[in-house]
Amino acid sequence: MGGPAFLSKQWHVRYRAQRAAEFGAYCREQGLAVTPQRVAIIRALLSAEDHPRADQIYARVRRQHPHISLTTVYRTLEQFCEMGQARKVTLLHEGARYDGNITPHHHVLCVGCQRVFDIALPEADRLLHDRERLGEFVLLRCLVEVQVLCGQCRRKGQNSTGVRPRRQRPVQSAAQS
Amino acid sequence: MGGPAFLSKQWHVRYRAQRAAEFGAYCREQGLAVTPQRVAIIRALLSAEDHPRADQIYARVRRQHPHISLTTVYRTLEQFCEMGQARKVTLLHEGARYDGNITPHHHVLCVGCQRVFDIALPEADRLLHDRERLGEFVLLRCLVEVQVLCGQCRRKGQNSTGVRPRRQRPVQSAAQS
DNA sequence: TTACCACCTGGGAATAACTACCAACTAAAA
DNA sequence: TTTTAGTTGGTAGTTATTCCCAGGTGGTAA
Ligand SMILES: [Mn+2]
Ligand SMILES: [Mn+2]
Ligand SMILES: [Zn+2]
Ligand SMILES: [Zn+2]
After folding, report:
1. Measuring CA to CA, which of A66, B87, B101, B166 is 20 to 30 A from A40?
2. Chain B 95-154, CB < 7 Å to strand C
3. At A122, which CATH number?
4. How far apart are CA B93 and CA A89, in angstroms?
5. What is each CA distance from B155 to A122, B49, B57, B158, in whole angstroms?
6. Which domain holds residue A20?
7. Chunked mean pLDDT (size 10), chain A, 177 residues
8. Do A90 and B88 touch (CB under 8 A)?
9. Are residues A54 and A13 part of one domain?
10. Based on the domain organization, do B58 and B123 belong to the same domain?
11. Does the residue A54 lie in any domain?
12. What is the CATH number of the domain that holds A60?
């Protein structure tokens, strides 16, 4: 289904380079110091394509910064979300996942392996697009979560429809580069 | 804002009675024993109108069954979800909430007080309504989470747009009946 | 009505995922 | 450089949930 343009490898490579280049400026803009830890974390996040959890970012960053602490990773990822440099994705009821791609998009979640995929869903963006209010409520944002069974999991046959138990780690099909 | 019909008090009273009446049959159908604990929990869930967390259900059930254990509440709520008698609602990143109303509807979440409100959103239901597949993915369900600021929180002025810290308890505006 | 037992329950221990705290450190302004 | 406000690494604490298992009980077969 040749996905939308922003999902292509090409696009991702350029996007990552651009964001990395601008990172220092963004930090200064927010009055935040440009520390090696922050740089390492944003790099790990930008090069991830799998919506990693904090502990996964930790593991990856540790290859270059064996001394970094898990606390710093949690703290920094939260800061990135606050300053708009990352998105927190909290699907189902497992640990939070982080997304370095801050262009507007929605997520597809496989209830079998719990992998998260990007999806463009223009219909969804149009959903409450024009409205500022919904009765007494001021609209802030509207998130769409599509629960699916991916090809891999469908072939394995289990997972009729129900929601999976928590804390089941996703299948690690291969080591990341 | 006179919401949709299924949100009316009237509707809720009848719905609750009907569901409570059918509960025993549903259990037997699934090969589950009709224990006093299960009955108490489904009753608490059906009469709740606030999408309570497991610990809140526990507190309410304990008024009639001072001996029930928290484990049983967690376990039973999960079972209800599995057998389709309850819905698990996991917005933001706080503890799971349970919903005894299993008619299709979506949720509005106030990022200020973290209260959850029901909402009918026919546009959303139509979103992927007709499709069975999305590329390699088999569609299971599509959830829409609308993040808002409720009237109460808007008046208090805080909460520009960001996501609130976790584990902040919702305001208990009044004791429930 | 009773006996049986597969299924259930209570309570405490364990775990996962954060979060708080604080002394030591360091980016960056002066 | 010097200064210091902002940052970091450990470690302890918390919350929400799950695990474990000995003892209890609903449902049914006799
Ligand atoms: Mn994404
Ligand atoms: Mn609801
Ligand atoms: Zn899958
Ligand atoms: Zn509110």
Report:
1. B166
2. none
3. 3.30.1490
4. 9
5. 33, 24, 30, 8
6. 9-83
7. 60 93 94 96 94 95 95 96 91 81 89 86 77 86 87 72 41 34
8. no
9. yes
10. no
11. yes
12. 1.10.10.10
Per-residue pLDDT of chain B (177 residues; tens, 9 = 90+): 444 456 688 888 999 999 999 999 999 999 999 999 999 999 999 999 889 999 999 999 999 999 999 999 999 999 999 999 999 988 766 778 899 999 888 899 888 888 899 888 887 777 777 777 888 899 988 888 888 999 988 887 654 444 434 444 444 333 332
H or E element that contains B61: helix B54-62
Q: Do A75 and A141 fall within a single domain?
A: no
Partner-chain contact B147 A154, CB within 8 Å: no
* pLDDT at position B7: 65
Specify the DSSP class assigned to residue B50.
S
Residues A79 and A20 reside in one and the same domain: yes
Rg (CA), chain B: 18
Residue B93 CA to residue B96 CA, distance in Å, equals: 8
The whole-number Å distance from B166's CA to D20's C1' is: 30
Chain B nearest CA to A35, separation (Å): 24
Q: Is residue A44 part of a domain?
A: yes
Q: How many domains does chain A have?
A: 2
Both A72 and A121 in a single domain?
A: no
